[in-house]
Amino acid sequence: MRLLPAFVASVHGLLVTQHTGHRRLPQRFGARMITSTSLAVADVENTVGPGRPPYALSGLPRPKLRGAVMGYLHKSKSWYLLACAYLTAAFLMLPRPVQALDIFLRLGLVGASSASVAISDGYHNPDRRSDGQVEGREELFWLRLDYISISAMLSTNLLLWAANLGWVGLLPFSAAATTASTAAVVAASLVLVPRRTGHVFVKLTMAFQFVCLLGYLVICAITSPTPACSSVYFCYLPGFILYATKWPKHKTFGYHEIFHSSVLLGHMASMGFDLWFLR
Fold first, then answer.
1. Residue 213: CB partners within 8 Å, gap ≥ 6?
2. Which residues are CB-contacts of 183 (< 8 A; sequence separation ≥ 6)?
3. Looking at beta carbons, which pairs linking 179-186 to residues 24 or more positions away fall under 8 Å?
4. Which terminal residue of the chain, N or C, has fewer Cβ atoms less than 10 Å from its own Cβ?
5. Of all helices (H) and strands (E), which one includes residue 198?
């Protein structure tokens, strides 16, 4: 897991300079980007920690609970230990001889989920790692990574379960489509975000991944000899629906907190059902 900080550092310059061109962003940057980034930031009614600065791009209050949970999972390394335990168990349970693709797909799932945890901590808690000030360029860096990690999470889940289900039906085409979608999200995050067109394109692409591509995977799973694995999708489903509808708006535990909880539950369900599938 020590590779993750190195990876983040290596791409930091690329992600930031795609928009800033190495120049320090003017102070009016945050105010100018309020409209274009409001789709991707925290609920305005969330409780904030004492003395914490607002989000630099939107000016909205910084959440307390969300940042605390993601910060704990990252700093305590508890999520990464869980991921390592899953990988170890999966390796021991895989049929012999172990195929490289089987290992690669599970590494992808663990990598995407672990990156999501680390990036969420980076996006919600940058003031905890500095003098309490947050610059727009730093927040933009984490926002771009956040989009990429969510799309990668959707793709790695589809690829793993398409393989588990034996690539039946149109699953090979779904796998190609979700891979292309993640590539498109990467490009749009680097080039178009934080413009409104960038946010809209990224979110529509991820909606296509979740509703159409993963939806087809669920149909295949329900009609397979192991329909229980379709439960993975329904663990993710509430969070994505509520995040899209921006409801409920609650001071402490609103739609964004439910989204994070649902995503973490979906990660654990995917790992757990994969081990059940391999039993």
1. 154, 158, 174, 177, 178, 181
2. none
3. 179/155, 181/151, 181/154, 181/155, 181/205, 181/206, 181/208, 181/209, 181/213, 182/148, 182/151, 182/152, 182/154, 182/155, 182/209, 185/147, 185/148, 185/151, 186/148, 186/151
4. C
5. helix 196-207
Count other C-beta atoms under 10 Å from residue 84's C-beta.
Answer: 14
Which has the closest alpha carbon to 116: 231, 53, 206, 204? Answer: 206
The C-alpha atoms of residue 217 and residue 158 are separated, in whole angstroms, by 7
| Cα 56 from Cα 30, distance rounded (Å) | 5
Is-above-0.85 flag for pTM? no
Omega cis (within 30) before 238: no
**In whole numbers, what is the pLDDT of the chain averaged over residues?**
85
Q: Set out the domains of the chain in order of their start, with CATH numbers.
A: 3-278 (1.20.1070)
Query: CB under 8 Å to 231, separation ≥6 — which residues?
Result: 269, 273
pLDDT, residue 43, reads 37
- pLDDT by residue (tens digit) across 78-100? 999 999 999 999 999 999 999 99
Q: Torsion over CA of 58, 59, 64 and 68, rounded to 10 degrees?
A: 50
Q: What is the pLDDT of residue 134?
A: 76
Element (DSSP H or E) covering residue 78: helix 78-93
Helix axes 171-191, 136-164, angle to 10 degrees: 170
233 alpha-carbon distance from chain centroid: 15
Give just the sign of the alpha carbon dihedral 4, 205, 65, 44: positive
pLDDT for position 80:
98
Residues in the chain, pLDDT under 50: 1-47
Whole-angstrom CA distances from 90 to 78, 84, 166, 275, 278 are: 18, 10, 17, 6, 7
pLDDT in tens, 9-48: 444 444 444 444 433 444 434 433 433 333 333 333 344 5
